[in-house]
Design a protein that fits this description.
The chain is built from seven helices and four strands; from the N terminus they run αααααββααββ. A hairpin with a 3-residue loop joins β1 and β2. The strands form two sheets. The protein has a two-stranded antiparallel sheet with strand order 1-2. A two-stranded antiparallel sheet has the order 3-4. The chain is globular, with a radius of gyration of 18 Å.
């Protein structure tokens, strides 16, 4: 099943294919004029703000790969604690950009990022260290997973905000599972109810499974 393991070079073509499918879904959701100012599941964000966030995020990846290739010093990571406030400021700063201009920019950014990831060889996929602005040094394959988070999760946000069916596609969910535990652990809300709870997960598609787990905060 290595083709479903994004940390493995054997999974490269699979994750890049699924990322493209999710990106095309998001572009289609964002293109209608009436969708631009529609609310999403992201508090305070419209579809326009989601698109702006993806532009900001992806262009940050370009800088990260440039630093990795040059061998320069990226400095200390910003950290995840303040990530929410910063990405909100970065996204809302683009509210004056017209819809077509911002969508065209995102589409161009997407193709450039796909090119960067597709050009990675077997050694570089896991062996090239790329400094993430918020998280610090990461293996190059993480950026393929980050693009899947960017497009699959934010497509879900737009669908949920519109009131339409919004389940995450099975292939995207399957690839994201191992990465989402890292994201949850790193972005937990301080001061939240620490009581254990149960969560059920159902993943459809070729690797479909239903499972339940009891979750309790560490410490």
């Amino acid at each position: 099943m290595n083709e479903w393991d994004a940390t493995s070079y054997a999974g490269k073509d699979t994750i890049l294919r699924v990322v493209r499918e999710e990106a095309e879904r998001l572009f289609a959701l964002a293109e209608p004029e009436e969708a631009w100012e529609a609310p999403t599941a992201c508090t305070g964000w419209t579809t326009r703000d989601v698109v702006a966030h993806l532009v900001d995020t992806t262009e940050g990846y370009f800088a990260a790969f440039d630093t990795a290739r040059r061998g320069g010093d990226a400095g200390a990571a910003y950290g995840l604690t303040g990530m929410g406030a910063r990405v909100n400021a970065q996204a809302t700063a683009m509210r004056g950009v017209p819809q077509k201009e911002l969508l065209d920019r995102l589409k161009a950014d997407f193709e450039r990022m796909q090119g960067i990831l597709r050009e990675l060889g077997e050694t570089e996929w896991a062996g090239l260290t790329v400094p993430h602005f918020y998280m610090g040094p990461l293996p190059a394959y993480f950026y393929a997973a980050a693009q899947l988070m960017d497009y699959a999760v934010h497509s879900w946000d737009i669908r949920q905000g519109s009131g339409r069916a919004h389940g995450l596609p099975g292939e995207a969910a399957d690839l994201l599972v191992p990465f989402m535990f890292v994201v949850w652990q790193s972005t937990v809300r301080q001061g939240a109810d620490p009581a254990p709870f149960e969560v059920g997960i159902r993943v459809g598609g070729v690797n479909g499974v239903t499972s339940g787990s009891r979750w309790a905060p560490a410490g």
